[in-house]
Design goal:
258 residues, alpha+beta, six-stranded mixed β-sheet, 5 helices
C-alpha cells in the first residue's frame, strides 16, 4: 500500500510547462526566427544587387560589342508612345531606329533593347533596365568616328566630404555617351517586365528624379534609405556608363576604328 501511495504521488507531481515557461520559450524562438529572417532578407537583397550590377556590366560589354560590329551603339527600346515612338515599338525589347538610321528616342532614355542584345530584359527585382545614348553614337546611317562629337552626358556624385547633406555635387565623368541603369529595389519610375508602370519617384528623392528626367545629367552615389538625412533623398539606383574615350579606345583596339 505504501508503494502505491508513492507511485500516485509521483504521478501527480509530474506536470507540463507553466504558461510563464511557455511564454519564455516562445519569446526565445521568436527572437531566433526573427534574426534568421532578417539575416536571410539581407542576404537576398545583397545577392540581387550583386546580380544586377554584374548584368549591367554584361550589358555594357554587349553594347560595345554591338558597336564593334555595326559602327554604332544600339538605340533604346521605346518605353512610351510619343514623337517617333509608336505603340507597336513600346516595350518590345527591340532597338528603335527611325528608317534604319537615328534613334526614335532622340537621346531620351528608354529600355535596354534586350531582344537586340540578347540580354538585359529586367533587373533582379523585375524592372526594365533603363538606357540612354547620345544621338551621334547610335546612328546606323552615319557610324561614329574618332572625330565624332564629345560625350555630352555627365555623371555627378554628391561631395560628402564637403557637405554632409550631399548638397554639393561634383563631376565624376563628363564625356559620357551612354548610360545604363537599374532603378534598384524600390523601382521608382520604372516599368515592370510585365510592362506595368512602377510607382513614380517621390519628390523627396531628388537624385533618383535626376536619373529619370531624360536630360543629360545622371547621379551615381552610395545607397541611402528613405529616412537618411541626405539632401538627395532615398537612393538605390545602380548606374554604369560608357565614356567617349573608353568606347573609341575599344573600337580602335578591335580594329573597328582607324
Amino acid at each position: 500500500m505504501g508503494d502505491c501511495t508513492v507511485i500516485m504521488k509521483n504521478r501527480y507531481q509530474q506536470h507540463g510547462f507553466t504558461l510563464i515557461e511557455l511564454a519564455i520559450v516562445l519569446v526565445i524562438v521568436g527572437v531566433l526566427v526573427g534574426g534568421f529572417i532578417s539575416t536571410l532578407a539581407s542576404r537576398i537583397d545583397h545577392t540581387r544587387k550583386s546580380e544586377t550590377a554584374d548584368e549591367l556590366e554584361d550589358i555594357k560589354q554587349a553594347m560595345m560589342a554591338y558597336a564593334f560590329v555595326n559602327g554604332n551603339l544600339p538605340c533604346p527600346d521605346c518605353d512610351a508612345v510619343g514623337g517617333n515612338c509608336l505603340a507597336a515599338d513600346v516595350n518590345d525589347g527591340v532597338a528603335d531606329f527611325v528608317g534604319g538610321a537615328a534613334c526614335k528616342e532622340a537621346q531620351a532614355a528608354g529600355n535596354v533593347p534586350w531582344v537586340t542584345l540578347g540580354l538585359g530584359r529586367s533587373d533582379a527585382w523585375g524592372t526594365r533596365y533603363r538606357y540612354a545614348v547620345q544621338d551621334e553614337y547610335a546612328n546606323l546611317g552615319a557610324p561614329f568616328t574618332i572625330a565624332s562629337a564629345a560625350g555630352s552626358a555627365e555623371i555627378q556624385e554628391p561631395d560628402f566630404d564637403v557637405d554632409a547633406t550631399g548638397g554639393i555635387p561634383q563631376v565624376l565623368a563628363d564625356n559620357v555617351v551612354a548610360i545604363i541603369l537599374s532603378q534598384g529595389k524600390n523601382g521608382y519610375g520604372g516599368i515592370s517586365e510585365d510592362n506595368v508602370a512602377r510607382d513614380a519617384v517621390p519628390l523627396a528623392n531628388i537624385d533618383e528624379r535626376n536619373n529619370t528626367d531624360d536630360n543629360q545629367l545622371y547621379y551615381f552615389r552610395p545607397e541611402t534609405t528613405a529616412d537618411a538625412d541626405i539632401k538627395g533623398g532615398e537612393f538605390d539606383d545602380i548606374v554604369v556608363w560608357i565614356s567617349e574615350y573608353e568606347l573609341k579606345a575599344k573600337m580602335v583596339e578591335a580594329g573597328a576604328l582607324p
